[in-house]
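Data card: per-record layout.
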Amino acid sequence: MWVVVIILVSALAGPEVHVMRDATYKDEAACKAAIARNVPAKLEARPRQEFEQGLRQYVCVRVGDADVLKGK
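The structure for this 72-residue chain is written out next.
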């Protein structure tokens, strides 16, 4: 299982990480496709500007121990 993680780093406040829990993906390719489909097209003005300036990154991260949730 894979999820999209949003990462921002500020010199004053440090790292900020948000895990998008609303959607999970079966593999990395599906996760990356979701990012390509939605970013930056569906972002509001400020997040879009942060993304375009490289201040906000969207990455795919595999969820550890997800097999436990499936009963494997």
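Known properties of this structure: The chain is about 30% helix and 40% strand. The longest helix spans residues 28-38.

See the next section for split statistics.
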